[in-house]
Amino acid sequence: MTAEINNSVQPKNWFEGIPRESYKNFEKVDISSDWFEVYRLPHDVYAIYESKHFQEVISFLIIGEKICILLDTGMGIGNIKEVVDQLTNKEVRVVNSHCHFDHVGDNNKFSHVYIYEDEKALARLRIGYTKDELKEHLDPYLINEGLPNNFDSKNYCIEPIEPYSLKDKEILDLGNRKLEVLYTPGHSPDSIMLLDRQNKILFTGDTFYPAALYAHFDGDFYGDSNFKTYLNTMKRVAKLVPDLELLYCSHNEPVVKPSIIYKVVEAFEEIINGSSDYKIVDEKFREYSFEGFSIIIKDV
Ligand SMILES: [Zn+2]
C-alpha cells in the first residue's frame, strides 16, 4: 500500500517507545503548543520535537548573538513558527538538512530558507508537496494522541517557497558562533550536516540518528539514496569524531555520543562484505540491525 508510493517503511507499534527515557536528561522548556515538545540542550540549542508522529522529527533552534538558525521546520502539522517565537526575539533563518517533507513543512512561515545547492532539492522546495503526496503520512496508525486542534488534515500540504542555496564548507556566522555546512550525501543527494567546531557539536540531519537509517530510497518523492556515497560520507564524518563531543540528530533521540559513527562505518562495511545478517521488511527492503541503529537498503 503506502510503501509502494513513497518507499516508507511501515512502522509497527512505534509509539510503545514513547516517551523515550533519554529526554529525562534534558530540561523540558515550558512553551504553549499542542504538537511540539521543546528541550534545552547544551550550548544554547533547543530541540523542537514532534513526539506524536511516527517520524519523531527533531528540529533545532541554534541561538546566536546576532541571528539564530532553525535547522529544519518539521512536518508542517504543528506551527513551528509559534514555538520559535516563544524561544527567541532575534532574527531566525532556516536551514534545511535536506528536502524531505518531514523537515521542510513550515518553511513558508520564514523569510530566509537555505538548502544545499542541489537542483532537485531547490526545485522540490519551489513546488512544495501536494495533498496527495502527503495524505498517507496522516494515517491514524502513524499518529499518537491526535493532531493539533486547528490542523486541517484534509488540506495538509507543504507550500512552495523560493529557497536560498548553500555550498559545501560555507560558514554561517551567527555572531558569537559559526556553523560550517558539510555536504553529506547518501541518505539523500542533498543532505548536509552543520558543524559547530567551537562547541564540538555536529548536527547530523538524517544521515545519522539512533534508529533505522534509510539508504533505500528512490523515485521522485524522496530522491535517490546511494549506499556507497553514504559509506564515503560516514568515513569522512568519522574523521571529525576526535574533535566532537555531541551529535545532535534529527529523529527520535536528540543527543548521541559521536563514537557511534565508527560503528556505523563498520556496519556499512559489514553489509558490503556480506558478513551481517538481515531481515526482509515490507517484502522488498533489507534491514540490518546493529547496536543502537539499523540500516535499510533495497533487497536486490
Ligand atoms: Zn527525516
Characterization of the model:
With 300 residues, the chain is of the alpha/beta class. The protein has a single domain (2-208, 245-257), classed as Metallo-beta-lactamase, Chain A. It has helices at 2-6, 80-87, 119-127, 131-134, 227-240, 260-272, and strands at 27-29, 37-41, 45-49, 58-62, 67-71, 91-95, 113-116, 164-166, 171-173, 178-183, 192-196, 201-205, 212-214, 246-249, 255-256, 279-281, 285-290, 293-298. The strands form three sheets. An eight-stranded mixed sheet has the order 1-2-3-4-5-6-7-8, covered by helices on one side. A hairpin with a 5-residue loop joins strand 14 (246-249) and strand 15 (255-256). The longest helix is centred in the C-terminal third of the chain and has 14 residues, at 227-240. Mean pLDDT is 94; it is low at 1-5. The structure holds zinc ion. Zinc ion binds next to loops. Zinc ion binds at residues 100, 102-103, 206, 250-251.
Summarize the structure.
Helix 5 (227-240) runs antiparallel to helix 6 (260-272). With 300 residues, this protein is α/β, with parallel strands linked by helices.
